[in-house]
Amino acid sequence: MTVPTKGTRGCVEFAATAAWARPAPTNPQPPNRTSHPLRVAIIGGGPGGLYAAALLKRLDPDREVTVWERNAPDDTFGFGVVLSDETLGGIEHADPVVYEALQNHFTRWDDIDIVHRSTRQTSGGHGFAALGRKRLLEILHARCRELGVELRFRTEAPYPALLAETYDLVIAADGVHSTTREAYTHVFRPHVAEHHCRYIWLAADFAFTSFRFEIAETEHGVMQLHGYPYADDASTVIVEMREEVWERAGFAELDEQESVERCAKIFAEALRGRPLKSNKSAWTTFRTVVNERWSHGNIVLLGDAAHTAHFSIGSGTKLAVEDALALAACLEEQPSLERALAAYEDERKPVVASTQRAARASLEWFENLGLHLDQPPRQFAFNLLTRSRRVTHDNLRLRDAGFTEAVERDFGCPPGTPPMFTPFRLRGLTLRNRVVVSPMDMYSATDGVPGDFHLVHLGARALGGAGLVMTEMVCVSPEGRITPGCTGLYTGRQADAWRRIVQFVHTQAPGTAIGVQLGHSGRKGSTKLMWEGIDEPLDDGNWPLVAPSPIPYKPYSQTPRELGRAQLTDIREQFTAAAWRAARAGFDLLELHCAHGYLLSGFLSPLTNRRTDAYGGSLEKRLRFPLEVFDAVRAVWPEERPMTVRISATDWAEGGTTGEDAVEIARAFAAHGADAIDVSTGQVVADEQPEFGRSYQTPYADRIRHTAGLPVIAVGAISSWDDVNSLILAGRTDLCALARPHLYDPHWTLHAAAEQGYDGPGVAWPAPYRAGSRRPQTGRTDAPKPRLTLGG
């Protein structure tokens, strides 16, 4: 696990003489020398810096490698660290001596215990290895000395600019508060985010038998304990809670010892009544560090100086050690220092970014722990175990089949039935499985009429096994189209064409439902087809745009006209007429599109709605017109058929819609009769800053589901059936909508059934396709070779 840094290990700027107090040069050292530097300076004597020193010295015994560490050899903060089998495998191949020393001191265990409301759930098969941080440093100190590395303890490193002039390579491993990074902030361009929880790093004088998560619901709010053994007689204990809980509990007024005693009392049962101990421990907030660049001339960042990952996934030390392995390998492989450092960044950045995404998901899950407290005990445990998206349903089933099967039974899965193939009911419609083909604009209509392409597109995906297939956004007027190629439901001819598609689905794919999404483009209309220039205005033939406020989407976009009251009435009637035609065409479900910056979404966001009348200002007023449209559509839509609403749960922009707003928006639509909320994000303003990643939008669905208490559809980079099973079984969503996977594979759901060996009522192979219901054999795949292998 990452250990919180106390102050800055490594370098400080001396001001005693002009030679030391010099500013950082623009380019500290032209990186045109060989990639086999003979003089290496390392700032910071943590695990990453020490391991890099040992590797570089072992690769070339003639190298001069010097490590500066401002603390004493036996000074350390925190208590235990966890290393994965993957990291240990890299160490074993690169330095068997270090690997053997680590093996001799590891404490190993397999179980995770989750204690919540006096109920303990245990999941096994996880394979952890930990040792004391002090012991780890001792092993690395000994190895460095054996190899001839010069270790300078209790010594501040010279300013990095001076080191860069006098050494071939400078490795800045000086922690989360890196002064090297700050000296060259204009080059590394760091982004440091602080989060909403306070935590303190402590220890107990006994060994837990598992990795233990314990939840305490106190009068001040929810608190959690993360504990794990790192020696036969010692465990790391981290106590964490949201900032407001920490303040209400009075921890801000307590000194170190009083905090330790209070924590021991709160978690007395987990600690068996034993005391906790500290080591200059203090409450802190976690800081996520991301750098755009990791190197500058002959200076390179490593470990927490370059990146951090929340301690709840135990990757800080792991990442630093893997950085050292990759850096050493790149220096051996590349012909110049410049190419070596570039290769190091290219190799490590994607790995680190993936880990940071998982760490952020884990961090945010614990920040919002209160959302999940009322879940059944086993589902709560499964939710916690899969919080980072790295442990999944399928992965957990391999680790602990008994636990996973028990969670499935509690959820209601019949034997042998994956969660995604359980039915779900919305009003009078029962979906046979939880997979939705998400709305995808095809831009292939003529005069708004869906043609043979749409029949094949939607028909193929209906035959592919999904429980619900959604149309693209179907526009309610010619002026409400996004492009000239968008479909509509504003003429009888269009309705007849849609009826043909609906009948095909109902006849050829019985059991598959088909839904229509109705919308109006608003200020994002009158643009080119996606592949001709997304969001670019037409070269000619533009139609006038309307919106809540006269704000263009992009600087070069057409400025829309602000809607007056009469026009609002006209548009509401257009939605009503389209809904009536959709009902006559036989659609099973209707979704109102209030997302992605289109007309109704434009009313909801404060960034696009600047009105001063009854339809602008507070969220309640911004909701008024979308709710009027919803009510009008619900009035003509058959009572037994469900209606959903797609929203953008965040604008990914300062001053825009927030997660809290999204909950209130969902509640408002639910109060008016919405059966589920389709939870998307963004695309409201052009300068948004989304945080992309696997399943990155699902936390918003999770929040709405548990706070507003209504069914949700999760969307956003859900790409595998394992993701779908995990999200549904954890209770984060009710349905999963997938877009691009269905473009890649129209029969995605059928193939998901085949790959899981499922053949039940949750999916049906069309008779002509049954011969393909078994997964074809594939060729052998081999695991990658170790990153760095050296002789014994």
Automatic annotation (TrEMBL):
SUPFAM superfamilies: FAD/NAD(P)-binding domain, FMN-linked oxidoreductases. Residues 768-792 are annotated as: Disordered. It comes from the Bacteria. InterPro entries: Aldolase_TIM (IPR013785), FAD-bd (IPR002938), FAD/NAD-bd_sf (IPR036188), OxRdtase_FMN_N (IPR001155), YqjM-like (IPR044152). Residues 420-753 form the NADH:flavin oxidoreductase/NADH oxidase N-terminal domain. Residues 39-356 form the FAD-binding domain. NCBIfam families: PRK08255.1 (NF006101). This is Bifunctional salicylyl-CoA 5-hydroxylase/oxidoreductase.
